[in-house]
Prior knowledge:
By secondary structure, the chain is mainly beta. 6% of the residues lie in helices and 52% in strands. The radius of gyration is 23 Å and the shape is globular.
Amino acid sequence: MSALCQKQIPALQQMRPFRSPRHRACDRGGWLIFARFSRPRARFEFANNAVIAQHEGQQTLIIRVANARHNAISRAHARLWIIRVERTKEGEQLRRFYELKLDRSDHPIFALSWNLFHVIDKNSPLHGLIASDLSDTDALLVLNVSGVDDSSAQQLHARRVYSWRDIRWHQRYKDITSVSPQGRLLLDYTKFHDTVPE
């Protein structure tokens, strides 16, 4: 095995024959040298329920997300859709999806928690609807979150689907923030999924 190969892939196992495409090889003198390159797994924590409450004086759909990794996620991005059953003029039933515009869909450094807000105004697909309307159309919320792992520079993706049963109307998330005597921000993740009446 050449010195170049040793420098590029240290502490490797020598084996033959080639076993898996998930390993990278350096071939010198008939021997194959393998290193396993693991991909970081997205560890986004999603609240068990979405909530609809007043926020800044407007009815708003809110979903809370947390970064369960020990490092920051750069260029985090979120997109939210509603999927529901609709009937055409000919009487056919179709599932159609509509994107729900988020107040802030990007987070420059996602390290702790992130509340996603969709304002239910006259331009929202949720405008004028009540809980029974979502039930009648078997509505689903689909949330996609992505970002770049700061440690490995690899892309992360995660998805959460909420049924209409998972939406809590006139509820808000319990506050999980506090300040330590030293003035540091503290987050109590034991309350992460808790909701309270607004």
